[in-house]
User: Which sequence fits this backbone?
């Protein structure tokens, strides 16, 4: 599997995979224009900007994405001060602004200096159940950081997959942990294990 950082030209590939990470959230945010909204956010300096996303390819064909954030990147994203006037005029622009702020708030959770935050991982539908997600998760060991992520307590399938990949519940949650219906999981890097 080959990894590279996303580029602006990748927005049309990235957007449907980001949508797949939480369709109900993006439908609530943008309605029928969910993919359009994600494409716009991927071109802005938002947490789902293409430059924060890694594309994974097999034989040059993109099959998956993931976003891994350092504490410094998360702090930078939180400190951005978006202004409504910089968004398109009208209801869609207002929805973009609000979703930008929602994504920004999600980045405000603390992680320790020895950690990186896995904000998303998504495999293209026709490549699921082939082990590519596992390859991606195992590749994160090369970062030398403990990887943490948040997942809904109701998402039994994801919880099971992450457990099989060595993720365990984080017992020391930061005081600013805002997700009451989620659980934070962590997996130490090989160098820490």
Assistant:
């Amino acid at each position: 599997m080959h990894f590279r950082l996303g580029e602006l030209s990748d927005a049309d590939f990235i957007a449907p995979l980001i949508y797949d990470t939480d369709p109900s959230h993006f439908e609530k945010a943008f309605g029928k224009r969910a993919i359009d909204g994600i494409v716009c956010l991927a071109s802005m300096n938002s947490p789902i900007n293409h430059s924060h996303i890694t594309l994974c390819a097999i034989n040059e064909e993109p099959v998956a994405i993931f976003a891994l954030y350092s504490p410094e990147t998360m702090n930078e994203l939180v400190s951005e001060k978006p202004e409504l006037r910089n968004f398109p005029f009208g209801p869609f622009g207002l929805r973009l602004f609000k979703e930008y702020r929602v994504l920004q708030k999600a980045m405000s959770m603390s992680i320790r200096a020895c950690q990186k935050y896995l904000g998303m991982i998504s495999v293209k539908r026709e490549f699921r159940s082939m082990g590519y997600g596992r390859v991606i998760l195992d590749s994160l060991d090369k970062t030398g950081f403990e990887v943490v992520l948040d997942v809904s307590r109701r998402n039994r399938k994801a919880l099971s997959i992450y457990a099989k990949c060595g993720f365990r519940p984080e017992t020391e949650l930061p005081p600013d942990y805002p997700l009451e219906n989620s659980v934070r999981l962590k997996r130490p890097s090989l160098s820490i294990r």
